[in-house]
Amino acid sequence: MTIISFRLNENLFLKDPQNSELGQNIIRSSISLIDEIGFEHFTFKKLADKIESTEASVYRYFENKHRLLVYLIDWYWTWMDYKMDFAMQNLLTPEDRLRAGLKVIIEEKKPDPNFAFVDEQALQRIVMSEFDKTYLTKQVDLDNKEGLFIPYKTVCNKLACEIKKVNPAYQHPHTLISTIMLSANHQVFYAKHLPSLTDINGEKQVTYQKLYEFCEAIIFNSIK
Amino acid sequence: MTIISFRLNENLFLKDPQNSELGQNIIRSSISLIDEIGFEHFTFKKLADKIESTEASVYRYFENKHRLLVYLIDWYWTWMDYKMDFAMQNLLTPEDRLRAGLKVIIEEKKPDPNFAFVDEQALQRIVMSEFDKTYLTKQVDLDNKEGLFIPYKTVCNKLACEIKKVNPAYQHPHTLISTIMLSANHQVFYAKHLPSLTDINGEKQVTYQKLYEFCEAIIFNSIK
DNA sequence: CAATTACAATAGTAATACTATCATAAACGG
DNA sequence: CCGTTTATGATAGTATTACTATTGTAATTG
Fold it and tell me: Which keywords label this protein (chains A, B) (predicted)?
């Protein structure tokens, strides 16, 4: 029953969806709808029908569906950042901290009782299939200027800093981490849909375990 | 003077665009238009206006814009495959072959006189920003069944085989290669638009050189 | 010369991505 | 308690997108 909520970038929304029931409904239902039909087929009309509201009402919260997607994704990375802080707490060596942070990223997410209106597992699936679409656009520079990618950059930077501490001479901590983050997001998708692109397979739990080991090996083989 | 052309998967098109002037025009102009405005804003109407034809005529070649994008991307990976075969020719050790293949992937593309109606540099930019969108969809399994991702998988597999030859005991050749391929596509984008995610910067030539060295190091540190 | 093909021209439809206006009920402030 | 803001619903309307269908005609082929 912790009463925390994330304060996200105000450019993301017209009205904060966390402060009203309709807003929370929009978040909850957009997660399940995007998870179900994919972002391409997702429309505010379909969402409005699902929550028995109107398109116009949804538009009062989000300028367009792209901003809504970025909102969800930013929420996810802010959540990861928060979980990483917990996981890395009290660990003394940068190696341990790095491993703990990495583990947070590469594990199957469980529902977090702190956030009642977010289905974290569905959101993780959305991040895997849709995250890249938030920045692979022509407006990336404008969106970036508005700070829309800060949560992801924060997570990456936190891990890159630990790498730097493990080996201050290593020249590519950011490149290495963003490479690993990309892979962490894609390999689970490959395992499911394009298995010839990966050697990872088996049950979900096993998938994440193997993926974690793969990523850990890459990192430590590179920086030692 | 073209004496070669790639025979692409027939599921990609309704009528082969390589066999007519309008078809070639569609390819040429869709590359420049997608490069210019991005795939999201690209429509058959805009393309038709650009080539002074009609929407209906474009639809005779491609079922929809997604298939057209996959066509372009498949052409690119088929081209990469072809170039890799050349580059790896006559090299005897798997290490050398791996390096040569990787170099083909990670270098700034030059216009190839073999293919008059393709702007290879624009196409490379399209691959960097749009490739992931071809498979991060709800129809991925259907598209995969139709063989739409074969060219990419072929390229990945070719490199993974060399890894296996370098070190037959290495357990993750496919995972490693698809990780590197992802990174190769994204890091150049990061360098330009999200520089805090990478340590790579500087002039284009330098960017590719640094990126190549980074990827080579990851690979050989992992498999040795 | 007949028949196919390639393509332009035109029309039309359902869905998408919005914008605008108005009514009303709840909440809130003095 | 009354007036005002706020939140939402209801409704309408627009330009664009993503197609499908039909027809006419010039060029190509058999």
Answer: DNA-binding
Give the Cα separation of B1 and B149 in Å (integer). 29
Q: Which residues of B touch A40 (CB under 8 A)?
A: 137-138
Strand D nucleotides where any atom sits below 7 Å of a protein CB: 7-12, 16-22
Burial code (b: 16+ CB inside 10 Å, e: under 16) for A145-155 equals: ebebbbbbbeb
Alpha helix ranges (H) inside chain B: 21-37, 44-50, 55-59, 65-88, 94-105, 120-135, 140-145, 150-166, 173-193, 204-223
Query: Can you tell me which residue has the tokens 């538009």?
Result: A59
Q: Helices marked H in A9-119 — which ranges?
A: 21-37, 44-50, 55-59, 65-88, 94-105
* Torsion A86-A109-B175-A206 (CA) sign: positive
What is the end-to-end Cα distance of chain B in Å, rounded? 45
Closest by Cα among A31, A10, A27, A4 to A85: A4
Q: What is the mean pLDDT of residues A64-84?
A: 98
User: How many angstroms separate the CA atoms of A159 and A162, rounded?
Assistant: 5
**CA angle at A116 for the pair A112 and A122, rounded to the nearest 5°:** 65
- Residues A207, A192: Cα–Cα separation, whole Å: 10
Q: Cα separation of A215 and B170, whole Å?
A: 14
Q: Which tens digit of pLDDT belongs to each residue from A15-69?
A: 999 999 999 999 999 999 999 999 999 999 999 999 999 999 999 999 999 999 9
Supply the DSSP symbol for B4: -
Rounded to the nearest integer, the mean pLDDT of chain B is 96
